[in-house]
# Entry
Amino acid sequence: MFVASEKRSLDAIFDTFLKSPTIFRNRDVLRPTYVPDELPHREEHITRLGMILSSALRGAAPSNVFIYGKTGTGKTAAAKYVLKHLSEKTKSSEVSIPALKTAYVNCRVVDTNYRVLANLCKEVGLEVPFTGLPTDEVYRRFVEETSDKNVLIIIVLDEVDMLVKKDGDDVLYDLTRINTSLKRGRVSLVGISNDLKFKDYLDPRVVSSLSEEEVVFPPYTAPELQDILRQRASAGFREGVLDDGVINLCAALAAREHGDARRALDLLRVAGESCERAGEQKVSEKHVRTAQNCIEFDTVTETLRTLPLQSKLVLYSIYLLEIHGEEEAITGSVFDVYTELCAQLGLDLLTQRRVGDLVNELDMLGIINAKVESKGRYGRTKKIKLSVPSNQVREVLGEDEALKNVSNYVPKGSRQSS
DNA sequence: AATCCACAGGAAGCCCGGGAAC
DNA sequence: GTTCCCGGGCTTCCTGTGGATT
# Structure
């Protein structure tokens, strides 16, 4: 299995890797999750946020804040930055003020009312089971735990729109009114959302109390992105390893996608990695281009690979229609092919209703593009197209053992109709 | 103007595996 | 043990609908 020559060549790879001087000084600085000591072009927003939250230093509960802005505009970083400095300040403060606790919840990960509350309980040192209790009970315990303590809790609900879309605004409603049930403890909320229309789904009472204050984060412009990249690059890369155009190109590419700093940083980091892997000493625009393809390809592959089996089957049906059918795939034909595949593999058949939902999920993931279209007398349906390369779909789905038996399947008659 | 296709997509509720409380 | 709750995947039943055709 493991031949000596292979071992030697692997050794050689490791050796060259160790010997060649790394171009990175500190790779972590280039990750989007890193919060630097300074956030360029967000001074205004940070000041604003700081002013709102500063009443914590006088022992009063700050107003609830709502932060809007698209992905990668620095919302989360700014919020974390301000909270970090705020809690440092409260510790060194001479005035006696309530203890400050901050709880950060990412509602994309923690996406049900129950789990948000369970998370908050954990933050105040209360263990609750991850299921089993009524939601009200978890809320009650949280109130009980915090009510008598002289503590101010600032709760950050990141991507809160995800929670509301999925599970309604009950928890938000409870949390905005929680202070009326607390004797000494106080709670302030910081909501973060990248959906500007998000307020429409909310109970008006929640809107008014949640957005007592609002801060909007505009997208970064290309020059601003350049500044951010330069700042991180100087800490992340060793001096002189970046070609001139590299930062500008990363910034330009990311600016094209609604000024996403996260994207820009990923590009820069991955460009560095691909340069390093090639054993080169200077990161050039070529590496940035490679990085762009690489990021795109990797995220798609990972998404495809982790799809549940039924979704894979639906996607595979769409793929088959795309390569064999003369016409565009529509819901009905996808369902037909999917039915054939299930019969072939001896799998349980889902209803068309459910398959429709799976199609929508694939659409949301950006793997396919589904558009409702009316063909007049011939009904209303969805036209479905792949929006990732078809050979990538074949490759990744082909890895799945469960789909091996249909790897060469051809849908019955390329369903020709009038 | 009326009809009618081929679905879209909402609502309600089932079932299951997790667990808590009594 | 019984009875309750939660969450996710799913089905059943249903009403709604854009626009070519009649």
